[in-house]
Amino acid sequence: MSDQDLGFGADDYQIAVYIANRPPIYEYQQLAQLTALTSGEIAHIGQHCGNGWRKVFNVYAKLLYALDKQQFNFAKLAPTWQQYRDSFLLQPYSNTALLFSAPILSAKKQRSNKGVIHIIMGKIYAKSLINNKILTVELNWLDHEFAINQEQQVIVCPYFDYRQLSNAKIDKLAGLIASFH
User: Fold this and answer.
1) What 3-state class would DSSP assign to 179?
2) Can you give the residue range of the structural domain that contains 169?
3) Which of 31, 53, 29, 28 is nearest to 42 (CA)?
4) What is the secondary structure of 72-137 as a DSSP string?
5) Could you give the count of Cα atoms lying within 13 Å of 45 in the half-sphere of its Cβ?
6) Domain assignment of residue 102, yes or no
7) What pLDDT, in 10s, does the model give residues 58-85?
8) What's the total number of domains in the chain?
9) Distance (Å, rounded) from C-alpha 170 to C-alpha 175?
């Protein structure tokens, strides 16, 4: 297991979302580090990788936009979640990451006093990380879709897809994130 982040986003991420797969575009399959996206790159991935990837980015932006505006500044940066997605999500200084590597919960990765919030996308992915002893935190399952570890600020939630993570579930996830502060 590597102790280096692998995926899209900013080095100073405050919110890390973990996904089991990566976009099937050659340069992303070869990615070996955390790389900030550029303006227009999310649209490019959506065009070339299909609706599933568009949904991942849309749900991520909607989640950030749903967070408490007193605790997080994501929604203050753009008038709509769509504009936030296109202008800020996973770009330099966005405080966000979409990681293809497993969660690293060591103290050195906790970047601020409140630490990084780790969101694992999908129960199946989370259970595979646990079964393979890659993720070693104890999770408190709140129901059949959501689990949390308050101390390490880890949440397991449904996959970022409109059917699996509806607006009501996005609000629930935003509430779990707010519980860390």
Assistant:
1) coil
2) 7-178
3) 53
4) --GGGSSSSHHHHHHHTTTSTT-SEEEESSPP--SGGG--SSS--EEEEE-HHHHHHHHHTTS--S
5) 24
6) yes
7) 999 999 999 999 999 999 999 999 999 9
8) 1
9) 9
